[in-house]
């Protein structure tokens, strides 16, 4: 069974549709749209990006994503 980091890395790769190693707001929205009515609201997406984007560049790098999602912090964000 995959550990939390491996699971977070797999999710990151699934969301990173252009394979550039960065998650943009658009990629996160597209992943969210794929969930249909079960996804997050726009304000929740913005809050997720803000909480994960530790360097403030407007994108989420793998390490930022793993730091947030890989340790379960997103559950309380």
UniProtKB/TrEMBL annotation:
Residues 3-38, 40-75 form the EF-hand domain. The keyword Calcium applies. SMART domains: EFh. InterPro entries: Centrin_CML-like, EF-hand-dom_pair, EF_Hand_1_Ca_BS, EF_hand_dom. One of its GO terms (molecular function) is calcium ion binding. It comes from the Bacteria. It holds the Pfam family EF-hand_7. SUPFAM superfamilies: EF-hand. Keywords: Calcium, Repeat. This is EF-hand domain-containing protein. It comes from Nonomuraea aridisoli. The lineage of its organism: Bacteria, Bacillati, Actinomycetota, Actinomycetes, Streptosporangiales.
């Amino acid at each position: 069974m995959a550990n939390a980091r491996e699971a977070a890395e797999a999710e990151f790769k699934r969301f990173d549709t252009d394979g550039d190693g960065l998650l943009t707001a658009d990629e996160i929205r597209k992943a969210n749209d794929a969930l249909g009515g079960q996804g997050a609201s726009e304000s929740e997406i913005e809050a997720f990006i803000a909480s994960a984007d530790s360097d403030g560049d407007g994108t989420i790098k793998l390490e930022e994503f793993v730091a947030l999602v890989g340790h379960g912090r997103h559950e309380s964000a």
